Amino acid sequence: MSALPSQPRIRIPRSARVGEVIEIRTLIEHPMETGLRHEAGRALPRDMLTRLMVRLNGEALFSADFQNGTSTNPYHVFFVRIEKPSHFEFIWTDEKGRQARSEARVAVA
Amino acid sequence: MITRRSCLALLVLPFAAAAQTEEALSAAIRDAVGDKLATDGGITLRVPTLAENGGQVPLGIVVESPMTAQDHITAIHVFASRNPTPGVATFRLTPLLARAEVQTRIRLAEDQRLIVLAETSTGRVMRASAEMRVGAGGCLT
Predict the structure, then answer these.
(1) B20: CATH
(2) CA-CA-CA-CA torsion for A47, A48, A50, A54, nearest 10 degrees?
(3) Domain membership flag for residue B141
(4) Which of A36, A70, A79 sits opposite B106 (nearest CB)?
(5) Domain contains B50
(6) Could B96 and A78 be called an inter-chain contact, meaning their C-beta atoms sit closer than 8 Å?
(7) Is A71 buried (19+), middle (13-18) or exposed (0-12) by CB count in 10 A?
(8) Is residue A39 part of a domain?
(9) What is the count of structural domains for chain A?
(10) Structural domain tally of chain B?
(11) Which of B31, B47, B125, B139 fits as disulfide partner to B7, beta carbons 3.0 to 4.6 Å?
(12) Range of the domain at B55
């Protein structure tokens, strides 16, 4: 699987108390070009992410399937209750199957 | 975002095309939840009353749900009634999430209605909508 040039950014606390709800913010730099836009009379080729998949300790946690109405540089926020040391894996996939990955660990204080 | 040129094309669409937009919206909703009846309520939408930039409109969705293994939100579908295509995104949720809340940013081509459907693990479908006003418009940027 080839890699996307897109740069992901994750904002997540490094540690949390057991039972604490944490906020996870994700953003990936991507044009999300729909193929419907024109520039100088020519259609800009479609270049879209299709999916964000987030896993927590290997289990599916949250995913997003993107359609044309998702903005440039897709941004998502969601909330998780921390019960134990947690490993988060973030995978974005584009319509050509290319992927960008990031990961984060949250320790329990 | 959509260029001025394609915006002009949208403005001159005949009424038949407007009807197709309604049809595309109904089809997208059918694709997402089938023929299940949606009940209003249980969903809070956090959106600006006026979206200054139609290309980056903040959207917060909070669905009332205990988010337990037995009773949780499995999916949230977002549609825009008058974009060139109605689909915005589908979010898949699991009970590992603390609550059924998602924040994101969406594109709106013009003033229109935002429709959000939430599916529960017990087979229910909840629905909410918001009339959105778009200032500069996703079209003109």
Answers:
(1) 2.60.40.2470
(2) 110
(3) no
(4) A70
(5) yes
(6) no
(7) buried
(8) yes
(9) 1
(10) 1
(11) B139
(12) 4-134
**What is the mean pLDDT of each successive set of 10 residues along chain A, which is 109 residues long?**
88 97 98 90 93 98 97 98 98 97 96
The reported pLDDT for the residue numbered B140 is 39
B96 to chain A: nearest residue by CA?
A61
How many whole angstroms separate alpha carbon A73 and alpha carbon B87?
Answer: 17
CA distance B140 to B8: 10
Q: By C-alpha distance, which of B109, B49, B139, B61 is closest to A76?
A: B61
- Could you give the percent of chain B with pLDDT greater than 90? 79
Nearest to A92 by CA among A105, A83, A70: A70
Q: Nearest chain B residue to A83 by CA: give it.
A: B96
Q: Is residue A100 part of a domain?
A: yes
CA angle, B99 as apex, B94 and B102 as ends, to 5°?
85
Total residue length of chain B: 141
Residue A39 bridge partners (DSSP):
A42
In a domain, A93, yes or no: yes
Q: Domain range holding A71?
A: 8-108
Chain A residues close to B57, C-beta within 8 Å: 71
Facing A69 at nearest CB: one of B80, B92, B101: B80
Q: Which helix (H) or strand (E) holds A26?
A: strand A21-28
- Kindly report, residue by residue over B46-57, the tens digit of the pLDDT: 999 899 999 999
DSSP letters, chain B, are ---HHHHHHHHT--HHHHHHHHHHHHHHHHHHHTTPPEEE-SEEEE--SEES-TTSEEEEEEE-----SSS-EEEEEEEETTSSS-EEEEEEE-TTBSSEEEEEEE--SSSEEEEEEEEETTS-EEEEEEEEEESSTTT--
- Cα(A55)–Cα(A86) distance, integer angstroms: 10
Residue A73 is part of a domain; what is its CATH number?
A: 2.60.40.10
